[in-house]
Each structure stands twice: as structure tokens, then as C-alpha cells.
Automatic annotation (TrEMBL):
Keywords: Hydrolase. One of its GO terms (molecular function) is hydrolase activity. Gene3D superfamilies: alpha/beta hydrolase. This is Dienelactone hydrolase family protein. PANTHER family: ALPHA_BETA-HYDROLASES SUPERFAMILY PROTEIN, CARBOXYMETHYLENEBUTENOLIDASE-RELATED. Residues 63-289 form the Dienelactone hydrolase domain. It comes from the Bacteria.
């Protein structure tokens, strides 16, 4: 029988139904993401920020999210931060604080919360099977819409809305650009462009090229074995051939010597020079398109 959530003897902790300790969003690295290169991981402080976990109502569900914004400020540009398959762990929370230090309200909803706690699984294979494979694109789009609505009611100016996502979140970033008419700009970090469709994921970015509501900047690695350059070139050609204004306005930057997850500063895949360059290009993209 599955165990209900129970209180831990440690204040602020509970156990999930699988018996693992639940940790507040953004306070630790996900177990399945090990090994962690802790010494190289960027650590952004909380000075001048309001940051931490919040709860967002979405379709009758109370969705946890990590929010960071300048303390006491309102009418802030909003950026949605979409995680990798590991969920909203320490790396994603730090990215939110990096944006907040620059004047954004950054929010990272835990988009896997209905299916389970992604931080509690010890292997990528188990996490993929037990959680990720059960998350539908329809659910994710609705939860992101809810995060936008929450942001607008809590200090954000949703007329200046951007989104960025990493790996799993990179694909979602492309999809949200074809979903949200509020969106001004998007930055997708090494998100899949044309994987095999599935019942819960019937369409991919390359299928939605003609439906974009905002221009997308794609940041990809030339040595990414999971997203071959052939896929990137096909996506470039589809964007160029589209009559959609935002498709034609989308761009790719490919870093020839980087592989997958080159921005993930807590992992061995991190490539500092390309990660920093991509970050600056992302900020410039948001500024160019009216988010910042």
C-alpha cells in the first residue's frame, strides 16, 4: 500500500508516498542528475530578492513553483523558466534568481507535480518511466498559462512575457511559443525539435513552425548526440520557408564544440564560455523583443 505523506522529524520536511524525503523546491540538486559538480555550480544569493516556493492554482490542482523577483518592486517583466526532466531543483532556482537580479519576475512551475516528485528518483530511466512519460503537452500548456496569470497578479507585467527552457523545457519553450498569444519572445536551450510523436505529445516544434506567436532563439550544441545537426538544419529550413512572421524572425545559434546540457553548470557537460555567451544572447533577445 502506498504511504500517505507524513511529517518528518526534521522541521520543514515531509515524506512523499514512496517514502522519500520531500525537499522544498530549489533547495537541492535532483538525485537523478548526479554526479553534481558542486564546485563549478553558479550560486546566486538572495540579497534584494523575494524568492522561494509559491503555490499556483491550475485546473483544480495546487501547483508548486519557484519564484524570484526584486523585493518590493512591481510591474516587472516576466520570464517563465522551464526545467529539464529533473524538475525545479537548485540549478533551476538559481536561474530564476539570476533573472531576478536583472529586474525580472522569474517563475519556474513544477510541471511534473501531478505525476510525482522528480527529485526523488535515483535514475534517469526510472524518472522517465514513472513521471516524464505520463505528462501531457496539454497539461503543461495549461499549467504555464496558470503561471502567467499568477505572475500578473503578483507583481508581474504580463504584457512583457518571455519564456526560456532547458532540454525537456527547451522543447516546451517551442510549443509554448505556438500556444500563447501573450508571449513576446522565447529562448530554447537544446530542446528536441522532431522526436517520435506519442499520444501525450502528438506534435513537435517542427510541426508548429507556421503557428508561432513569438520569435524563438534556439541555442544548441554541435556535438549533441541526442539532437543531431540534421534536425537543426531541417528546423531552420522550415522556419525560413514559413510565411509566419515570427517563424522567419526566429534564429539558431549552434556552438560547435558543445554537447547537450552545455549550460548546466552543475554537470560535467557544462561549457563555461558557450554557456555565458548563450546567456548574454538570451538576455539580448528578450530586450530586442520587448520583454526586458
Amino acid at each position: 500500500m502506498l504511504k500517505p505523506e507524513v511529517e518528518s522529524l526534521v522541521p520543514g520536511q515531509t515524506f512523499d508516498r514512496r517514502g522519500f524525503v520531500k525537499i522544498a523546491l530549489g533547495s537541492a540538486f535532483a538525485a537523478a542528475a548526479l554526479p553534481v559538480m558542486a564546485q563549478q555550480a553558479i550560486k546566486t544569493d538572495f540579497a534584494g530578492l523575494t524568492a522561494g516556493e509559491v503555490t499556483i492554482p491550475s485546473g483544480g490542482f495546487s501547483m508548486p513553483a519557484y519564484r524570484a523577483q526584486p523585493e518590493g518592486k512591481k510591474n516587472l517583466p516576466v520570464v517563465l523558466v522551464v526545467s529539464e526532466i529533473f524538475g525545479v531543483h537548485e540549478y533551476v532556482a538559481d536561474i530564476c534568481r539570476r533573472f531576478a537580479k536583472l529586474g525580472y519576475l522569474a517563475i519556474a512551475p513544477e510541471l511534473f507535480a501531478r505525476q510525482g516528485d522528480p527529485q526523488s528518483f535515483g535514475s534517469i530511466q526510472e524518472l522517465q518511466r514513472e513521471v516524464i512519460a505520463k505528462v501531457s503537452d496539454v497539461q503543461v500548456m495549461g499549467d504555464l498559462d496558470a503561471a502567467v496569470a499568477w505572475s500578473g497578479a503578483n507583481g508581474g507585467d504580463v504584457s512583457r512575457l518571455g519564456i526560456t527552457g532547458f532540454c525537456w523545457g527547451g522543447r516546451i519553450t517551442w510549443l509554448f511559443a505556438a500556444h500563447s498569444r501573450q508571449l513576446k519572445a522565447a529562448v530554447a536551450w537544446y530542446g528536441q525539435l522532431s522526436p517520435e510523436p506519442a499520444p501525450l505529445k502528438p506534435k513537435n516544434p517542427i510541426d508548429l513552425v507556421g503557428q508561432l506567436h513569438a520569435p524563438v532563439l534556439g541555442l544548441y550544441g554541435g556535438k549533441d548526440t541526442g539532437i543531431p545537426l540534421e534536425h537543426v538544419e531541417k528546423m531552420k529550413a522550415a522556419l525560413a520557408a514559413s510565411s509566419d512572421r515570427d517563424a522567419k524572425g526566429s534564429r539558431f545559434v549552434v556552438y560547435p564544440e558543445s554537447g547537450h546540457a552545455f549550460h548546466a553548470d552543475y554537470r560535467p557537460s557544462y561549457r563555461e564560455a558557450d554557456a555565458r555567451d548563450g546567456w548574454q544572447k538570451a538576455l539580448a533577445w528578450f530586450k530586442q523583443h520587448g520583454v526586458a
